[in-house]
Amino acid sequence: MWINNPNIVTDTVKTTVEATKKQDTSWIMHHVLDARELDFTPFGIIHLPQMHLFGIDISITKHVVFMWLAVVILVVTFIFVARSYKKSLIPRGITNLTEVLIVFVRDEIARPTIGKGNERFLPYLLTAFFFILTCNFLGLIPYGSTATSNIAVTATLATISFIVVQVGGMMKNGVFGYFKGLIPHGIPMWLLPIMIVVELLGLFTKPFALAIRLFANMTAGHIVILALLGLIFILHTYVVVPVSISFALFIFLLEILVALLQAYIFTMLSGLFIGMAVHQEH
Amino acid sequence: MEGMGFAYLAAGFGAALTVIGGAFGIGKLASSAMEASGRQPEAAGDIRTSMIIAAALIEGISLFALVICILLALK
Which of A101, A149, B36, B39 is most buried (CB neighbours < 10 A)? Predict the structure, then answer.
């Protein structure tokens, strides 16, 4: 669809209607999944470069571009915020908002869950919180796409959390002491084999749950909105428009809440695991 | 019914059962949170925070099942 086409809007509508008449719902997945081009229909399509390195496909895709955009936004914001503290210790404007969020992460997430050594892990928790928050919000703007709705991105975030938890626990308790501390005290000897297996499995299932929770929450919200709006095209009538759009608007507001909540949950569970690994006597 | 039909049927049933379980759990959680807030209104803020955390965790579990249903429906 190029801008030279005078019937852009009707062509877009016709394609969608044809797709739903043929019972083809692949347009839902097309809007949710990763793609190799930035699709600003009907204004144009930007094709992204594709690169292969030793047979591994490292081409730039839509989610990669939006991750980089989140990184740029965060770097610019935080450099500005850090500089503005030199001028005056009283924050104004964007510095005020960022300080509220940073103090929230420190007082509600790091201090209750980790306790004594929380300053060492605070940079990681803050990075995770703000990165996930920005990626989630970028998916809600028009033409935006959620980088965290890609299982690869959330799996990477969960792996990094896993590494931080293990390294933090081992640096505090020693490598062997950390594994010994996984088994709780005062259990009878015949439970020991089962407890070893359960605790070792638990080490791996917790980051896995982190990844799946974030991925599924982000993807499910978008699919529900697209399905509700697609009702208009499937039923092929104007009567359903106010109902469909109001439901979709409600789900959209819910998605804003879910974006904030999932960033908070990911960071809080990471902090909880770090706390459990560092202070094993609890 | 060939194999594909069973997959779509299973996806639909799976999603419905998941929603029943998740909504039941979160409903029970919200009712006890309301009751506790009524007994001690000063603790309402803490109760609200814990309720939201527990609700997000329960929803995480129901979304595991949703992911499996989506995988089935997409096959």
Answer: A149
Alpha helices in A88-191 (DSSP H): 94-104, 111-114, 118-138, 151-173, 175-182
Tens-digit pLDDT string for chain A (282 aa): 456 667 777 777 777 766 656 666 777 788 888 888 888 777 778 887 777 777 788 888 889 999 999 999 999 999 999 999 888 888 888 899 999 999 999 998 898 888 888 889 999 999 999 999 999 999 999 888 899 998 999 999 999 999 999 999 998 888 888 888 888 877 788 888 888 898 889 889 999 999 999 999 998 888 888 888 888 888 878 888 898 999 999 999 999 999 999 999 999 999 999 998 988 876
Q: How many CA atoms lie within 13 A of A194 on its CB side?
A: 5
Inter-chain touch B63–A262, beta carbons under 8 Å: no
B43 interfacial to chain A (CB closer than 8 Å): no
A216 inside 8 A of chain B by CB: yes
Q: Which of A213, A272, A273 to mutate to test the interface with B (most CBs of B within 10 A)?
A: A213
Domain count for chain B:
1
- Number of A to B CB contacts under 8 A, please give it: 32
Q: What is the pTM of this model?
A: 0.85
Q: What is the 3-state secondary structure (H, E, C) of A221-281?
A: HHHHHHHHHHHHHHHCCCCCHHHHHHHHHHHHHHHHHHHHHHHHHHHHHHHHHHHHHHCCC
- Domain of residue B13 covers 3-74
Least CA distance to A265: which residue of chain B? B53
Cβ contact, residue pair B56, A262, below 8 Å: yes
ipTM summary value: 0.79
CATH code of the domain covering residue B54:
1.20.20.10
Contacts of B74 in chain A (CB under 8 A): 29
